[in-house]
Amino acid sequence: MTSESPSQTEPWVAKHGMKYAYAYDKGSALFRGVGATGYPSAVLVDAKGTIVYAGHPASINDGVIEKALDGALSKPIFEWPKELGGVAKLIRKGDLGAAVAEVQKLGEAHADIAKAVQGMVAGRVTALEKARDAGDWLAVETSGKALLKGLGKLPEAEQVKAILDALDKDKGAQEILKAQEKIAKIFAGELKKNQFDKVQKDLDKIREDLPGTAAARDALAGLEKLKALRAR
């Protein structure tokens, strides 16, 4: 995944003859959401959708991976039978509430899938709670709103709503959120060389004003990106 623009990425891909898959993470939303702090980073997600590892790829071991397989689907979504096509489509859309209701209609024949979907819901709520506890308010804001919309009438929706409501009322959290949003906006497009100095000053100020926060962490990651851009 890269937060850089296609005009920056495609020439590099062509020059190095890169063969593996890649995709764009505009504004580094995924990068922040998984708790990554540098490159390269690997992320391991368990069967419930909970991030169980985020860090350097060399530090992942077989034990961590095997544990994350507990409760995994016997078949990936793209191999599900036709009668589960509607459930799979809803999951891909993020409409988890409707997916739970749909799979429950199919009865005991697909009880394992129903359990897995419900585990996915629980895992995403847990991930949101972890983001809240870590003070990563941009992750709470972006993933929380999407999750709340997708949960529909599921009881977990009340938990998510409570987290978002608390964020709205917390002035300190709002200050960090605004700083995080500013950083995301800076890197959402292609930076020009004449912007580098101002961006560095802005990022340094955020680190000074909000030390020890997720905004300071994002600013540090931004400074690393800026350093890489300057070296080109």
Concise synopsis of the structure shown:
The chain is mainly alpha-helical. The protein has helices at 6-16, 29-33, 62-68, 85-93, 96-105, 111-133, 137-151, 156-169, 171-186, 196-209, 214-230, and strands at 42-45, 51-55.
What structural class results from the helix and strand content?
A: mainly alpha
Strand content: under 5%
What's the total number of strands?
2
Query: pLDDT below 50 for ≥5 consecutive residues: which ranges?
Result: none
Could you tell me how far the N terminus lies from the C terminus, measured between alpha carbons in angstroms?
A: 19 Å
Q: Give average pLDDT, whole number.
A: 88
Order of helices and strands: HHEEHHHHHHHHH
The percent of residues in helical segments reads: 55-70%
Please summarize the sheet with the most strands: 2 strands, antiparallel
Overall, the morphology is globular
Number of helices: 11
Strand order of the largest sheet: 1-2
What labels describe this entry?
232 residues; mainly alpha; 11 helices; 2 strands; 61% helix; globular
Can you put this structure into words, describing what you see?
This protein is mainly alpha-helical and 232 residues long. It has a domain of 97 residues. Helices cover 61% and strands 4% of the residues. The chain contains 11 helices and 2 strands; from the N terminus they run H-H-E-E-H-H-H-H-H-H-H-H-H. A two-stranded antiparallel sheet has the order 1-2. A hairpin with a 5-residue loop joins strand 1 and strand 2. The longest helix is centred in the middle third of the chain and has 23 residues. The two termini are 19 Å apart. The model has no long low-confidence stretch (mean pLDDT 88).
